[in-house]
Amino acid sequence: MNDYINNGFANRRAYLDSLCAEYDRDTVLMMAEILGPSEDFDGLVTALEDGDSDYSIEAAMPQILAGVDHRGRACILVDDKTGEPIVQNAVRGDRGLTVMGGRPPQHDASTGRVWTIDDDGHRGEFFPTVVGARWSHA
Q1: Same structural domain for residues 79 and 133?
Q2: What DSSP element (H or E) covers 99?
């Protein structure tokens, strides 16, 4: 038996429909998609109960890595090949490093830095190219 049946629901859709009867449907479905099935009976319920707390939709959404360079220009971290923004906690590069944050260039010759963590919990600070990224003016 699965968690849905154990809790009296035919499947995940039936469970989410029951939550939609109590909370805003769009919010339930968006949070369920963001958090995934593994959080249906824990994180999803907490997020819905807390409303605008740390479990809000905004908090659950991936955060684009951004900052201000030495000239006061807004910058975002982007994929070096596609130019697509890189979000916090993205796994990148040949080493599979998780990008936690970063700092745009702080002088003309700088490429900025990214802060990472590996699978063993070791933190590092690297040039953006190590994770296939670059800082771009927003």
Answers
A1: yes
A2: strand 97-103
